[in-house]
C-alpha cells in the first residue's frame, strides 16, 4: 500500500522558483561566518506556521523547527503579540533587580512540573552547565564527596561547552578539544547493570558518584526512548545512595514528547532537570529546575547576564500559556501517532533500506539499515528538493521534529515527500 493510499489525498506545495530573486551569495557568507556548520544549500528568509520560504521564493514544509525549537511554528500570533508588547515595555535589566516576568514564568514551570526552584539562562548547554555545577556543590557540601563524578550515557548529547561536551559521550564532539573536564564517567544507555557497577567501582577514596545526568529520550543519539523499568530502577538507586538524578529535557521537554515533560513517560521524577529549545518557541532561553532539597546555590555562585530577562521570559510565558490554552499536547499525541504509522508503512515498502521507526509525540526517528551506504544526510538533501526540511540524528537516523501545531494534512505531505525521496535514492 502506498502512503498516498494510506494517509489520503494531500496537496503538495508547489515549487515556485522566483525569476526575480537573486541567488543567495553563499561565498560572501562563508567569508564572514565561521565554518562551524556543514550547511545545506538553502537560505531561508521567512516563515508562517509550519512553512518556510527561501530567498528565491520556494516554499518548504518545516519538519526541523529550528531543531525541535519552534514550538508554535513561525510567526504565531501569540508570540507576535508577546514580542511586541514586551519590547515596547522593557526588554532587559540585570538580575540585580527583581524581574516580574521571570517570576511569573518560574511559577508556571513549577506549577506544571515537579520542580520547586528555577534558574534561567540562555541555552540548553548553559542549563546543563548549571545542573553540573549544582550537582558538584551538592556533592561537596551535602554528600561529602571530595572528587565528585557524574555518570552520563554513551551516545548522549548535552551541549557544546567544555563541560557539556565532556558529559556528551560521543568522541566525534570531543575531538581536538582536550584536555576535557574531569569528573565524568560513561555507561551504556538503558543498561542498569552498567550503572550499578559504575557506582560500586567509582566509590573509592575521595571519589564518588554524585549524580546521573541522562536524557529521557536520546535525541542526537538516534531518537532512542528510555526504558521505563531502567529509569524506575535509576530512581530507586538514587533514593538508596543519595546520588542526584538529573534529566536533560532540552529536546524532549515542553510538550514535544506528547506530555509536557519526558519524565512523565517514565513514571519517575528527577531531582534536577533542564529545558531550553521549545521553552521559548525560538527565542533563546534555558532553564535549570530542581527540587528544593538540592537547591544549594548561594548569591554569587552562579549567574547569567541575559538569563531570564523581561523579554525572553515574557515571550516564553506566552508559549507556555498557548500550549495549555490551545490543548496542543493532544495535537502532539495525535499527529505523532499518525506520523509513526505512516513511517512504518514506508519502512515496510523498503525493508532492505529501513530498519526501525521510534519516538514519542513529535520527536521521531526513521532508522536506515547499517550495512548500506545511504545516510540520513543523503535523504535530507533529496527531501529538500521534494519540499520538506528534515534533520539527521546521527549518520543513520532521519529525525522528524515539526512544530507542535502541525496539521494532519501537513503530516500527509511530509510522508509523501519522504516516500518520493526514498524512491529517488533507492532507484
Q: Compute the number of helices.
A: 14
Structural class: alpha/beta
CATH architecture assignment name of the largest domain: 3-Layer(aba) Sandwich
Any idea of the CATH topology of the largest domain? Answer: Aspartate Aminotransferase, domain 2
Tell me the count of domains: 2
Number of strands: 17
Calculate Rg over CA atoms: 22 Å
- Give the overall form: globular
Mean pLDDT over the residues? 94
Full CATH superfamily name of the largest domain: Type I PLP-dependent aspartate aminotransferase-like (Major domain)
CATH class of the largest domain: Alpha Beta
What percentage of amino acids are in beta strands? 15-25%
Describe this structure in words.
With 427 residues, the chain is an alpha/beta fold. The chain folds into two domains: 3-63 and 328-425, Aspartate Aminotransferase, domain 1 (Alpha-Beta Complex); 77-325, Aspartate Aminotransferase, domain 2 (3-Layer(aba) Sandwich). Helix content is 37%, strand content 18%. The protein is built from 14 helices and 17 strands. The chain has helices spanning 3-7, 26-32, 65-68, 77-89, 100-111, 124-141, 162-167, 171-174, 192-202, 228-241, 310-325, 328-349, 376-385, 408-425, and strands at residues 44-48, 51-54, 59-62, 117-121, 147-153, 184-187, 207-214, 217-218, 224-225, 244-248, 272-275, 286-290, 354-360, 363-368, 388-389, 391-392, 397-400. The protein has a seven-stranded mixed sheet with strand order 4-12-11-10-7-5-6, with helices on both faces. Strand 1 (44-48) and strand 2 form a beta hairpin. The longest helix has 22 residues, at 328-349.
